[in-house]
Amino acid sequence: MSRFRLAGLLRLRDLQEEQAAAELAERTRRRAAADARAQQAQRLLVGSEIVGGDAAAWRVSVATRAARSAAVADAQAGAAAATAEEVRAQGEWSTARQRSTTLEKLAEKHRTAVTEAENHSEQLTLDELAVQRATRQEER
């Protein structure tokens, strides 16, 4: 059986695809964590009330609400950045997968051609044996 000449490249492409898939999984995990942080920050903001009463309590509640609003903005920015990184990783995995798939198709065509050649060679051998057997029987 002849060797597929691009086997080394196929192994490399498979490794690149695996690395891209691992990177995508990590980016997806980070995006989910960033989304969870943004949701938690939003819940804290919604749960905070501006307290009436004395001026000190009012200032504390306003400062708390402002800090929570800033935390929501930061968390949302982090979630947006994590989403962008996930989209980029998805594109890289898709490209790596396409490269692997192309070579896998070539490898499959090679295997098919080799199998067909082997089958043809075997059939020729069987035909030759049959002819030799028939010739020997005629000679008798």
* Backbone structural class: mainly alpha
| Succession of helices and strands | HH
Oligomer: single chain
Largest sheet: none
Strand content: under 5%
Mean pLDDT over the residues: 93
Which stretches of 5+ consecutive residues score pLDDT under 50? none
Computed over alpha carbons, the radius of gyration is 34 Å
Form type: rod-shaped
SS element count, helices: 2
Question: Quick one: how many beta strands?
Answer: 0
Helix content: over 70%
Q: How widely separated are the two ends?
A: 39 Å
Characterization of this structure:
This protein has about 140 residues and is an all-alpha fold. It has a domain of about 100 residues. Helix content is about 90%, strand content about 0%. Helix 1 runs antiparallel to helix 2. The longest helix is centred in the last third of the chain and has 85 residues. It is rod-shaped and about 125 Å long. The two termini are about 40 Å apart. The model has no long low-confidence stretch (mean pLDDT about 95).
